Amino acid sequence: MRLPKAVRTAAFRLTAIYAVLFALSLAIILAMVITLVQRSMLDQVRAAVRDDAVLLAGAYQRAEGNAQELDRSRAGHGTYFFIRRSDGTEVLAEFRPAGMPVGSFAIDEARAIAKDDDEVDGALIGYGARLADGTYLAAAREDEPVRESMEAVLEAAAIAAIVALTLAVLGGLFMSTLYLRRVDALDRTATAIFDGDLGRRMPVRGTNDEFDRLATSLNRMLDRIAALMDGLRQVSTDVAHDLRTPLSRLRQRLEDFGKTDLAQEQRAVLDGAVSEADAILSIFAALLQIAQVESGSIRKRFAPVDLGALAGEVGEIYQAVAEGAGHALAVRAEPGSFVRGTRELLLQLIVNLVENAITHTPPGTQVWLSVESRSDTVALVVADDGPGITPAERERVFRRFYRLDASRSTPGTGLGLALVAAIADIHDVRIEVGDNEPGVRMTLIFPKGSG
Fold it and tell me: How far, in Å, CA of 382 to CA of 374, rounded?
């Protein structure tokens, strides 16, 4: 069972810790208060019983041992008395203390004989004394008032503890809700920025609390990053555009020059120069496309895309290309595997992976393209049974302009897989490069999107 979101916050956990500490300190304080109250009440009862015993001794001496006179003159309402002369004769026997103790004493589970001849069950708190003539007398009171008072104190303490803990939990939930509102606002803004809305900034309420200070610092950081990115993007774009224009004009002039009468060797040199110009223009086009993808603005155009159907289209187109290069391309991709993204970029991603497998493997290599729908993800797999890639180079192949030693003799710019990595990153796709035994197996894990 998953706990509510408010309960899983750091604010609620801190409140719970404080509530536990508060409960422990409250329990310690209540235990001390209860102990002190109980001790104070017992001291009061002992003092009252001692006074009763003193009054009983005075009344006994004034009555000169006459039981009837003593019964008329003695004081002590609600008090039990006991008098035994030195010869063993009991003058009063409202209770019988065992051993006839001197000073304060307590009788647990005593059976005291009340004045009305009813038996009283319970503990007694008494005080005994021995007179000069050897007479022993004692006075005692029930501890029931103390017990009732302590029960009332314990009940009040339990109610106070329950109320305090309830308020602590409710306060924790309230604080967690307020905390979640601020965190959710920051999270929504961060998600919007990640999705390409680079103009969004963290909300600031003007309370100058820790959230406002954090939001202000993040906003300053975002402003700085945006300025740096804009400057870098502008420089890259300007360089690419400024160089691509003269290169396009140069290529056009070379083509125009090729329309004239040229010797065979001159035409071969001219064709090579045109090919080099095309390669440079391809590099600039790829760099501009990577920069556009990495900007994140494309996220605004995301929509459900059937990755299985898209892979099927690529497979149909590249069947002839693969056969022309001496390869066999096997496609297994059923429609209905939807992900969120842009059709153009996802098409470019699949094309680059298939072209990479065809271009950088020797003739006779088998290439597989498949799309598999899982519980909450969609897996795109491009594999081959070629020479493979060493584990040390599997992460490097996605760097810009990086080429394996075995691929340096083949055409290419070294930007195809870099563009794949940029498209995968903007679509929140995880890339796994593994061994196909033999060959390479590239698996791209997409979050599943609704169709």
Answer: 17
Per-residue confidence (pLDDT) for residue 128, from 0 to 100: 93
How far is 103 from 100, CA to CA, in rounded Å?
A: 10
**Residues sharing a CB contact under 8 Å with residue 81, sequence separation 6 or more, in sequence order:** 52, 56, 74, 92, 94, 95, 137, 138, 139, 140
Burial of 311 (0-12, 13-18, 19+ CB in 10 A): buried
Determine the 3-state secondary structure of 339 from DSSP.
Answer: strand
Find where tokens 């969004």 sit.
200
Q: What is the dihedral of CA 88, 90, 94, 97, to 10 degrees?
A: -10
- The β-bridge partners of 113 are 119
Confidence of residue 112 (pLDDT cuts 50, 70, 90): very low
CB of 431 closer than 8 Å to CB of 417: no
First to last CA, the chain: 30
Q: What is the pTM of this model?
A: 0.46
- Token pair listed for 120: 């009283």
Chain position carrying tokens 């929509």? 303
Select the highest-mean-pLDDT range: 38-52, 254-268, 436-450.
38-52
For residues 394 and 433, the answer to whether their CB atoms sit within 8 Å is yes
Q: Which of 280, 289, 291 is nearest to 231 (CA)?
A: 291
Model confidence pLDDT, tens digit, residues 156-214: 888 887 887 788 777 777 777 777 777 778 888 888 776 666 677 888 888 787 778 88
Of 421, 431, 340, the residue nearest 382 (C-alpha): 431
CA gap 7, 175 in Å, rounded: 10
pLDDT attached to residue 114: 47
For the chain, helix, strand, coil in percent to 5 are: 55, 20, 25
CA distance 65 to 234: 119
pLDDT tens sequence across 313-359: 888 888 888 888 888 888 888 788 888 888 888 888 888 888 888 88
- Sorted by where each starts, the structural domains of the chain and their CATH numbers stand as 1-193 (3.30.450), 210-294 (1.10.287), 302-447 (3.30.565.10)
Residue 361: is its pLDDT beyond 80?
yes
Mean pLDDT of 257-269: 72
- In angstroms, the CA 126 to CA 124 distance is 6
CA distance 289 to 345: 10
